[in-house]
Amino acid sequence: MEQESQEQIPSKESQIFGIRAILEAIRNKQEIDKVFIQKDAQGNLMRDLMGALKKENINFSYVPVEKLNRLTKLNHQGAIASISPVKFYDMEQLITEVSESGKTPLFLILDQLSDARNFGAIIRTAECTGVNGIIVQKAGSAPVNGDTVKTSAGAVFNIPICKVEHIKDAIFYLQGSGIKTVAATEKTDSSIYDINFNEAVAIIMGSEERGINPSVLKIVDEKAKLPMFGTIGSLNVSVACGAFLYEAVRQRTV
Question: What pTM value is reported for the model?
């Protein structure tokens, strides 16, 4: 769960508002990406909504009422939900299908990437480089909204995206399925060019500000960094992700 005021607000075509409407959407298993809750909202119905959000582990965040009022002139009751334009895949089923297809699996894990435009750019590159699926955490990850769709150039509709409870559990499952996990991090002496991408692999990219969670770095199989020769210490995450994915492509096509 996030509790911050700087939020990517859903566009009108992808939102539902009102506590009862959101509760009904949850009961009907709609793909709810995130719910925006008015700060200090009270009442039995709101408590029911909060209970449902926590039970289903749906991402939510508190925002000022002024933000909700800018989204609709109607009675939002202190809650607006962002509905995902895509259906999410079951990770275990996807891994099984890819492994049985005869292809060399290439997965991408995004550890709480928070910017929708970066997410869209990464999805676009992932689709172009033949990534079999993208894995994100339910809580704290960038939404799949209009910005994501636009910056992905529609690629979001062509690549499987899986939402999981915890990134670490996903990594353990991948490893147990014979898929090597490689973390993109500056906290290593190994270069991207030291990594063998010709085997089944999942590349892990971190968030824009914090990078990969230290607890995640402890359990990955390998770590790699990009060579840096300028005065700037890091690349935009979508650019860095592209470099990693195209190194995998280069190795697999030579």
Answer: 0.82
Read off the amino acid at residue 87. K
CA end-to-end span of the chain, whole Å?
44
In the chain, the amino acid numbered 237 is V
Q: Is 93 helix (H, G, I), strand (E, B) or coil?
A: helix
DSSP state of 254: -
User: Helix or strand or coil: residue 81?
Assistant: strand
| Residue 192, pLDDT above cutoff 80 | yes
**Distance, CA of 222 to CA of 195 (rounded, Å):** 8
pLDDT at 239: 96
Q: Residue 17 gets which letter from DSSP? A: E
The confidence score (pLDDT) of residue 17 equals 85
What pLDDT, on a 0 to 100 scale, did the predictor assign at position 9? 47
Q: How confident is the model at residue 4 (pLDDT cuts 50, 70, 90)?
A: very low
β-strands 180-184, 161-164 pairing: unpaired
Q: How far apart are CA 252 and CA 254, in angstroms?
A: 6
The candidate with the shortest Cα–Cα distance to 234, out of 218, 203, 217, 211, is 211
Identify which of 86, 66, 76, 84 has the alpha carbon closest to the alpha carbon of residue 7.
66
Q: Distance (Å, rounded) from C-alpha 208 to C-alpha 16?
A: 29
Q: Which domains does the chain have, with CATH numbers?
A: 12-83 (3.30.1330.30), 91-253 (3.40.1280.10)
